[in-house]
Amino acid sequence: MSEIPLIYGTGLEVNSPDGSRRIVRITVSPFLIGRAGATGNHLQLDDRRISRQCAAIVCDENIWILEDRGRRHNIFVNGKNVDRCVLRDGDSIGFGLDDSYEIIFRASDADMTVRNMLTQVEGLSSIDAASRGFRKLSLLLEATSLLDSALPLDAVLGTMIDHAITITKATRGILLEADSEGSLHVRLACGAGGTRLSPESVAPSQNAIRLALERQTSVIMKDIDVADLVLRDSDSIFAQRLRTVVAIPLCFMRRAGSGSSSVTKRAGVLGILYLDSQSRAAFSELDHQILDALATEAASILDHARLAEQERERVRLEQELNIARDIQQALLPAGFRDFPQLTVTGTNIPCLAVGGDYFDVFQIDDHRTAFLIADVSGKGLGAALLTTMLQGALFGMSVGDDPARVFNLINRFLCEHSAVGRYATMFFGILDAAGHIDFINAGHPLPILLRDGKVTEPFVEGSYPVGLLPEADYFTVRRELQNGDTLILYSDGITEAINTQGQMFEVARLREAIDGNGDVPLDRLQQVILESLQRFTRGANQRDDITLLLVRYRAAGQIAAS
Hints:
The chain is an alpha+beta fold. It is built from 12 helices and 28 strands.
């Protein structure tokens, strides 16, 4: 693998299925793309349908080439299936999947900008004019060369402002940046000769800035005496005796559509490049082009800086979610042991980094063991926090606690704190050595009982989810289990799992998978259910957490036979 020169703006715009967007720089060749979790990939995509080693982008003498290295679903560029393809700026890379990632190749266009301006310089009629043109063009080249440097962002932007001042012979230059709400604030202010000005000391013409924003184009006034009346009557212009004002919007571009029909359009304003002077100035067409080029590069720098900050924030949040996931997974039972009256196994597969499902098994005393499964509304970190709270409340039950009383207290707490905006379905059971099971079903999908290899559903009583209705009243119901009876508890992430045709797995398919498996070990029964679900979904994206808890009653003296 070889290091390649970093070309500012050359990279990949990664558009995820969830609508998020990020920029990934290409800094090595080959640059490897593949499914998340596979080692060696520089860009990891979280889609199980994409090959582990899917594609590579190779730099060959400043030519970027895409190579198909996976052949699971093939690689498409602008909608056309390719094995190897030269990439051009704006090319759309896909994987033959309508609901997966779209990757836009972004190449630096600085070379093309300079080439066009060289043509302008070569066409100048006099040697002196051409010389001045080359000097101004060299300033542009110097400014754009800084894009590859490791200088701090403000140092690069300050140099670009300095060069803009030199080209226009302005007294000062100001870079205004838009915040998240669109309001403009002075980021940098420079005077002639490279001096830095305090942002609080400058007062750019608000009318010129407003006009540039309204017109979405450069406002260049070379003689205020005969300029736009709106500018001529501006108090700030009059007070500062300004004769030349330049305001150039810094627009960022976004690609609309996909494939060969896509076009690049202005998507918003990042800020304003503002210059003014107390002297009259004359601008050539080349001056206009160089100013526009500097503004374009400044907009690109700000856009990439903003995206880089978003990427840093995304990485930080991802790290925090990974910590939360590790904590949540550590709270789930692991290395299931046999309890005096039951054997148990279970699994939890969150669809996001952290989930809203959980299960637990814990011994209350020598004769009773509690087990539960829960599904908190929503997904993500908020749901995970509530599952942890519920788990702690139920795990803290003492021997004499009435489960119904505990559920009523939890429900009252959640309803009184309605700002939490969450509720949870739960099935909670206590099984004793004699096979008596006392249970509460708080709006959870009905458990399935497997007895003598046949499927039945005897646990039909229930109440509302906790945290939904303040007046809900919870009560325990008792049933009798026979030796070898198996309870299958599950979250609706299983029955509502969808295949590529949009069909749901549903309870009937779950019952069909279980039927006739009463004597198999619990871990094998769990595997049968998950394999049946996997065959049905066939790689379709998971939309909800998947949780299973299998509990098998063993009468005294039978536990060793399980």
